[in-house]
UniProtKB/TrEMBL annotation:
Residues 1-14 have a biased composition (Polar residues). It comes from Enterococcus viikkiensis. This is Probable transcriptional regulatory protein P7H59_07515. Residues 5-75 form the TACO1/YebC-like N-terminal domain. Keywords: Cytoplasm, DNA-binding, Transcription, Transcription regulation. The keyword Cytoplasm applies. GO terms for molecular function: DNA binding.
Amino acid sequence: MSGHSKWNNIQGRKNAQDAKRGKIFQKISREIYMAAKAGGPDPSTNPALRLMVDKAKSANMPNDNVDRAIKKATSAGEGEHYDEITYEGYGPGGVAILVHTLTDNRNRTATNVRVAFTRNGGSLGETGTVNYMFDRKGYIAIEREGLTVDEDTMFEDVLEAGAEDMEILPEVFEIYTAPEDFESVRDQLEVDGFTLAQAELTMVPQTTVQLEADQQEKLDRLVEKLEDDDDVSEVYTSAE
């Protein structure tokens, strides 16, 4: 995973996301609704729902919002329907971009994503254009402040829990797992007494692209425009 720090990306966009908290809650509520609709209202028996509930906690989403979304999904009637669609393309400097969406209007979402790309130095591609450049991984971040464990011991604990790899940053341990091992590794680390700052399934680029300052600014604008869209759930890039 050398060259790619998801934690830095998370922290780098945190302030911007704080300013859009209401919109983020709306998006997470939609994801919780879909997970509960498909697998039931109990996070202990519905792994997809537990992931979304954990995501809500990471975003400091009130429990009432979570409960409302679950109740809405399990109430009588057909309710709402959303399609999961992934868009692929390139950004400034040849950076690969994946855009995961959850939408009730395919035409609206396709138009909005295309406009965001074309107006911000990117180009939207066909399905399969860049998806092969990313790997599905479990991602767990543990902040180092207050930890008494040293790096070598931490690495041993992480591997014993079933993880594939660990990156060491000054402020955090970044842990990567195979998708199918994510839940067991997450649960074991919690049993071991670690507090998880982030835990999610994500897309990790196989190789990264280093951008010039002006290219990075253009990419940041493109990602911001995409994330501003109500239908966009996640944006992944291959930028360092």
